[in-house]
Design a protein that fits this description.
Pfam families: CofD. One of its GO terms (biological process) is regulation of cell shape. Belongs to the gluconeogenesis factor family. The chain is an alpha/beta fold. It has 19 helices and 10 strands. α6 packs across α19 and α14 packs parallel to α16.
C-alpha cells in the first residue's frame, strides 16, 4: 500500500524493537558519524587515567590507600580460583562500564529535558553527518512513482531535490486549484510525506477526510499547503517553512510556482485541455505532443540551482504524459537539464498506462520524453525481475501491457541498464531496490 512504510505501529512487537535497536547500533558505527573517534578517545583517556591514578597513589602520600585496597581485594578474592590480576581486571571493567553508563544517562537526561527522544538522536546525527555526504540527486515527475522513489533515496542521501509536476486538475488538487487559483498540491503532499523524518507528520499529511461539507476528499497535507499558499501569497514563498515544519530530508519544489493547464495535441489536430480530461476525451487518438498554457511559466531559482549542482538527474517512474513530461515542459527546467553535465536516467515504467500510452513501446516512451525535453537520457533503467502471470493478467484486465526493450534499435539498447527493481507480487517498483540500483549506476560511472 502507498506509503505503508510511513504508517509505523508504535506498539511494535519485541522482535521488531530488537531489529530497530540493531539498526540504530549500526547507524552509530556508520562512517562520518564522528562517534567512533570520540569513543576511542574516551577509552584511551580512561586507560591513561587509570594508569596515572595508580602511579599517583602508589608513589605519593596516598600509598597507604593503595596498599589497603590491594589487601582488601586479596581478602575478598580467592587466589586459587581467580588470580589477583583477574580480580583487578574485573574491577577495572566494571568501573569503565559504570563510567559509560553514567555518560549515556547524563546525555539522556539532558535530551529529555529539551524534549528530544534519545531514540531519535542517532537518526538525527545519521541524517546530518552521514547522509549529508551522499550524492546530489535531482528527481522529476509526480504521482506514486516519484514519492516511492523518494522513500527509497532518503535512506542513501539527504541531498535530494524533488521537482514535482503541478498540473493535476482532478480530485482534491483540482478543487483547490479552482477555488484558490493555486498550483496543484497533491503530488507535493505525497513527496513531502515520503521525505519527512517524522512518521507522525507523514501519516497526518496523507490523511484523507471522509466526511464534512467542503472537507470530504481533501487530504490534510493538501489543506496545509493551501493554507500556506493563502497566507504567504503562493507556495513559492512558503517552501523553507514547509521543509522546516515537516522535517523533510532533502527538498521538494514545484516545477513551476504558477498555475498552468496541461494541453494534449492530438494527431487529428484537436486539443484536450486538462490532465483529468486526457483519458476521457482522447478516444484512442495518438498524442503528438504536450504543452502548458501559458507556455512560458517560470521556475524557482532553487530548482535551477539544484539541477546545476546535481550529480545524477532521474526522471520517472510515473505516468509519461501527465507526470513526467509536464515536469520538463517548464522552459527553465528543461534548459538546466540540457546543459547539466550530470548523468540523466529515465526510469522506465514496468507497465503501460491504459488510456494514456496505449500502443507505445518502451523506446517510444523514451523518444517522446526526449522530444519534449531536448535531451536523450544517458541511461534507461529497466526492471529485470520476472513478473508473475497473475500480475500480468491483472494488468491486462485493466488494459495495460508489459513494457519491453525487445525489438528496440541498437542505439536505444546501448543505453538500457537492467536491474531487479520489482516489488514482489506487484507491477510496481520497490523503493529500496530502485534507489540502490540508481546509486550503483552512479558509482560505476564515477
Amino acid at each position: 500500500m502507498k506509503h505503508e512504510h510511513l504508517r509505523h505501529n508504535l506498539r511494535a512487537p519485541s522482535g521488531e524493537r530488537v531489529r530497530d535497536a540493531g539498526l540504530r547500533a549500526r547507524k552509530w558505527m556508520a562512517p562520518g558519524m564522528h562517534i567512533k573517534r570520540w569513543v576511542s578517545v574516551l577509552i584511551v583517556c580512561a586507560f591513561f587515567l587509570a594508569v596515572g591514578f595508580l602511579h599517583f597513589v602508589w608513589t605519593g602520600p596516598m600509598h597507604w590507600v593503595a596498599t589497603r585496597w590491594i589487601l582488601w581485594l586479596n581478602a575478598v578474592g580467592d587466589p586459587d580460583v581467580l588470580p589477583l590480576w583477574v580480580v583487578g581486571g574485573l574491577v577495572m571493567t566494571l568501573a569503565f562500564a559504570g563510567a559509560i553508563i553514567s555518560v549515556v544517562m547524563l546525555n539522556r537526561s539532558m535530551l529529555q529535558a529539551t524534549g528530544t527522544k534519545p531514540s531519535e538522536v542517532v537518526d538525527h546525527i545519521y541524517t546530518r553527518r552521514t547522509l549529508a555526504r551522499g550524492p546530489h540527486i535531482v528527481t522529476l515527475g509526480g504521482g506514486t512513482g516519484l514519492s516511492n522513489l523518494l522513500a527509497g533515496l532518503k535512506n542513501f542521501s539527504s541531498n535530494i531535490t524533488a521537482i514535482v509536476a503541478v498540473s493535476d486538475d482532478g480530485g482534491s488538487s483540482g478543487r483547490l486549484r479552482k477555488d484558490l487559483q493555486m498550483i496543484a498540491p497533491g503530488d507535493l503532499t505525497d513527496c513531502y510525506a515520503a521525505l519527512s523524518d517524522s512518521p507522525v507528520l507523514a501519516r497526518l499529511l496523507l490523511h484523507r477526510f471522509q466526511r464534512g461539507e467542503g472537507l470530504a476528499g481533501h487530504t490534510f497535507g493538501n489543506l496545509m499547503l493551501a493554507t500556506l499558499s493563502e497566507e504567504q501569497g503562493g507556495l513559492a514563498y512558503a517552501m523553507s517553512d514547509v521543509h522546516e515544519v515537516l522535517k523533510v530530508r532533502g527538498q521538494v519544489f514545484p516545477a513551476t510556482p504558477m498555475p498552468a493547464t496541461l494541453v494534449a495535441h492530438l494527431e487529428d489536430g484537436s486539443q484536450v485541455r486538462g490532465e483529468s480530461a486526457l483519458q476521457r476525451e482522447r478516444a484512442g487518438r495518438r498524442v503528438l505532443r504536450m504543452s502548458l498554457d501559458p507556455v512560458e511559466v517560470p521556475a524557482l531559482s532553487e530548482v535551477v540551482r539544484a539541477i546545476d549542482e546535481a550529480e545524477l538527474i532521474v526522471i520517472g517512474p510515473g505516468s509519461l504524459l501527465t507526470s513526467l513530461i509536464p515536469a520538463v515542459l517548464v522552459p527553465s527546467v528543461a534548459h538546466a537539464i540540457c546543459r547539466s553535465p550530470a548523468k540523466l536516467v529515465y526510469v522506465a515504467n514496468i507497465m503501460s498506462e491504459p488510456g494514456e500510452t496505449d500502443g507505445l513501446d518502451l523506446e517510444a516512451h523514451e523518444r517522446l520524453l526526449s522530444d519534449h525535453l531536448g535531451r536523450t537520457p544517458d541511461w534507461v533503467l529497466v526492471n529485470s525481475a520476472p513478473i508473475g502471470m497473475a500480475v500480468r493478467d491483472r494488468y491486462a484486465d485493466e488494459g495495460a501491457h508489459l513494457l519491453s526493450s525487445r525489438g528496440a534499435s541498437p542505439a536505444f539498447r546501448s543505453r538500457v541498464r537492467f536491474a531487479p527493481v520489482l516489488r514482489e507480487g506487484t507491477g510496481q517498483h520497490d523503493p529500496d531496490k530502485l534507489a540502490a540500483a540508481l546509486l550503483r549506476l552512479l558509482t560505476r560511472q564515477k
